[in-house]
Design a protein that fits this description.
The chain has 293 residues and is an all-alpha fold. It is built from 11 helices and 2 strands; from the N terminus they run H-H-H-H-E-E-H-H-H-H-H-H-H. The chain has one domain: ABC transporter involved in vitamin B12 uptake, BtuC (Orthogonal Bundle). Belongs to the binding-protein-dependent transport system permease family. LivHM subfamily.
Length: 293
């Protein structure tokens, strides 16, 4: 029982990181209807931005802010430079899917050229493990969980209680109707991707901070698990995605703890396949497609 509670605690840390990444991914999808295959590289760039700041003496807060800024800038560039061009021309599906995959490969190789392919790590003290109720967490893990909760709560307030949030929900439900109603769908879409990039960049930082090392390929590998959480919860549905991230994160931690972590990716795809067979639209998707309903 004690070991199960410890594993659950580690699973909550993994779920916090996964939920942030999945939330960012579903925000991108909600306003463009495009599954962004370069999402993992936004996480990776965030991790490298934090690394550069940390190498110049920056602490955890500055590193996190740099990661968010780097992720936001890249997400906005991908949206304006690639995705939005396809959306404006009415081109969706496979061509846009392949375009974002191309962006992913380009960014991966640029990172290899600049930083090399070897693993890097932060010089940030993890802190001694401490008991928090039945769980055993380091200071870094507590920071990850608290920051994930704070970001999720702030995102909820933005979406539900601001004019921008109302516009976002309108565009996600019906982009054409929102445009006819006077909403600048392009601007809302760009700002949504910027917001998603800020979250994803920070998620990349805490992922690297939690794992201990990262490489140009770390984000893409984690993206495959992110995709499982997003689809399982309901792609384009933030609440479902959040719950999907928690479920998948905890399930993978138990699987890795009791069997072997090297099969986590295979197990994640097994979950994805099962969900698609049973509930193709996701476990928590109802009749409407508005992002936060």
């Amino acid at each position: 029982m004690h070991q199960a509670l410890l594993t659950l605690g580690f699973g909550l840390v993994a779920a916090a990181i996964l939920s942030l990444s999945a939330l960012a991914f579903t925000l991108e999808y909600s306003v463009t209807n495009v599954a962004n295959l370069s999402h993992g590289e936004i996480l990776t760039v965030g991790a490298y931005c934090a690394y550069l700041v940390q190498q110049h003496g920056g602490g955890v807060i500055l590193s996190g802010l740099a990661a968010a800024a780097g992720g936001g800038a890249l997400a906005l560039a991908v949206h304006n430079g690639v995705v939005d061009r396809f959306v404006r021309k009415g081109i969706g599906g496979l061509p846009t899917f392949i375009a974002t995959l191309g962006v992913s490969l380009v960014i991966q190789n640029l990172l290899v050229i600049i930083f090399g392919a070897s693993n890097l790590g932060y010089q940030i003290p993890q802190g001694a493990p401490r008991n928090v109720g039945p769980f055993l967490w380091t200071d870094t893990e507590i920071q990850i969980i608290l920051s994930a909760v704070a970001i999720t709560a702030l995102l909820y307030v933005i979406i539900q209680h601001t004019r921008f949030g109302k516009s976002l929900r309108a565009v996600s439900q019906n982009r054409s109707l929102a445009s006819v109603s006077g909403i600048n769908a392009h601007r809302v879409s760009a700002l949504t991707w910027l917001l998603a990039g800020l979250i994803a960049g920070y998620a990349g930082f805490v992922l690297a901070e939690s794992v201990g090392t990262f490489s140009p390929y770390s984000g893409f590998t984690f993206f495959l698990i992110t995709l499982t959480a997003a689809v399982a919860g309901g792609l384009g549905k933030a609440v479902g995605t959040l719950v999907g991230g928690v479920i998948v994160g905890i399930a993978l931690e138990f699987f890795g703890g009791y069997l072997s972590a090297q099969y986590n990716l295979a197990f994640a795809f097994a979950i994805l396949s099962l969900v698609i067979l049973v509930r193709p639209r996701g476990l928590f998707v109802g009749g409407r497609r508005s992002v936060f309903e």
